[in-house]
Amino acid sequence: MTAQSIVEEYTSTHQGSRELHERARMILPANGATHTARILDPFRPYITHARGSRKWDVDGNEYIDYVLGHGALILGHSHPDVVTAVQEQVAKGTHYGDNHELEVEWAELVQGMMPSMERVEFFSCGQEANLMAIRLARIFTGRSKVLRFSDNFHGWADELVGAGPGVVADQVTMIPGHDPDSLEKVLATGEYAILMLEGGGAHMGGQIPWDADFVRTASTLTRKYATVFLIDEVVTGFRDAPGGWQSIIGVTPDLTSLGKAVGGGLGVGALGGRAEIMGALTPKPPPERFLAHSGTWNANPLTAAAGVAACRLYTDGSVHRRVNELGAYLRQRGNRALRERGLAVRLYGRNIIWIYMGSIDREPPDDTLPPTRDVQELVAGAQARPRLCLHLLQRGISTMAARFFIMSVAHTEEDLDRTIEALVDSLEAMVDEGTL
Ligand SMILES: Cc1ncc(COP(=O)(O)O)c(C=O)c1O
């Protein structure tokens, strides 16, 4: 097999997608895609519909889906409770531009699961919640600087990325994670309004996992130096446990941002935390300061209907137990197959299962953890991943750039067995073609 064969094979079975990609390239500037993660050489499939753990493209190809709406769909595609709630709501009106009961119930459900969220505010997406966290922290502390960890992702707005082409973020300081001494040195300047930390670890819930002791230290240090502590649970909130990742490590942040799963599959963000910090949003007579918050789509009835339907299913923890169980099944059986076939690739994680392509220093008995602590190795495989993604797509497995497999309650053990087979087969094909 030559390195070109898979591209030719894929293109021949995805002619409808190829045609749409050609059209898209003329109008959508990101090489025809609408999100950087959806760019692939030669192109990703164009999807027509999805249900449960599956989605189908314009050429009739079926995929077991592990992209799952960028991690939002812990219930799988088109969960019946969410479909019913949205269908009923669309007939009753998508936007009243007014208050409604669903937003109250939604906030109560969120707070009931995450008690650190004494007050809750809704947004259109996760990054908006993070931007509001920065503003609230500035008002609360009277300071302007933002402290965050390199590799952590919080959205694409200037202060959330910190640096990059066209970015102006002169109040943002980025420090490496995992080093309590350098964290204390920076916090001790007393200049920082907020410390932001991505729940689980850097990248989608923990490609570079946090050591829980470091997070506990970070929480203690923020209290010592009067800096607001935010845990960004946009990915991990309502994915790891009803109480979020914070409940697993036993840390109570001042503020928590949510997104993805809290909206049941529709676009959403939420921010919650200590009433005295969130209180800047409460109207007050001058000269006291009142923070206004607009946003056309905040808690719109359609998203709220989906969010309430989904959150009702999260409260007893059964969804989280199931995705963690499926995650364990995939990584344990997957690692066994990879070892047996002599492939230097491993799987790790909780319910988002990472494909590790770096060098293997250790085989941790608890394979929720990666085979190394070396950050560079954890993110290795930049060249090989797009190629692996293509091989997996051709075998009916949809991933986001072959970085991870996201679990949902709609997946079955049979789906996972097929996925392991496809993964091993893809990697062996890559060895043959000389791309691994
Ligand atoms: C940890 C984290 N925070 C924030 C965001 C931004 O959320 P949104 O894309 O809904 O704005 C993301 C998106 O993937 C994320 O992974």
Secondary structure blueprint with pairings:
Blueprint: H1 5-13, H2 15-25, E1 47-51, E2 54-57, E3 62-65, H3 68-71, H4 80-92, H5 101-113, E4 119-123, H6 126-141, E5 145-149, H7 158-161, E6 172-175, H8 180-187, E7 192-198, E8 201-202, E9 208-209, H9 212-224, E10 228-232, H10 244-249, E11 255-259, E12 269-273, H11 275-278, H12 301-314, H13 318-340, E13 346-348, E14 352-356, H14 375-378, H15 384-394, E15 397-398, E16 404-406, H16 413-433
The structure holds pyridoxal-5'-phosphate (PLP).
Pyridoxal-5'-phosphate (PLP) binds next to helix 6.
How would you describe this protein?
There is one protein chain. With 436 residues, the protein is of the alpha/beta class. The protein has 2 domains: 5-77 and 318-433, Aspartate Aminotransferase, domain 1 (Alpha-Beta Complex), CATH 3.90.1150; 80-314, Type I PLP-dependent aspartate aminotransferase-like (Major domain) (Aspartate Aminotransferase, domain 2), CATH 3.40.640. 40% of the residues lie in helices and 15% in strands. It has 16 helices and 16 strands. A 7-stranded mixed beta sheet has the order 4-12-11-10-7-5-6, sandwiched between helices. A 4-stranded mixed beta sheet has the order 1-2-3-15. Helix 15 (384-394) packs across helix 16. The longest helix has 23 residues, at 318-340. The radius of gyration is 22 Å and the shape is globular. The two termini are 13 Å apart. The structure holds pyridoxal-5'-phosphate (PLP). Residues 70, 125-127, 130, 153-155, 198, 204, 232, 234-235, 259, 269 line the site of pyridoxal-5'-phosphate.
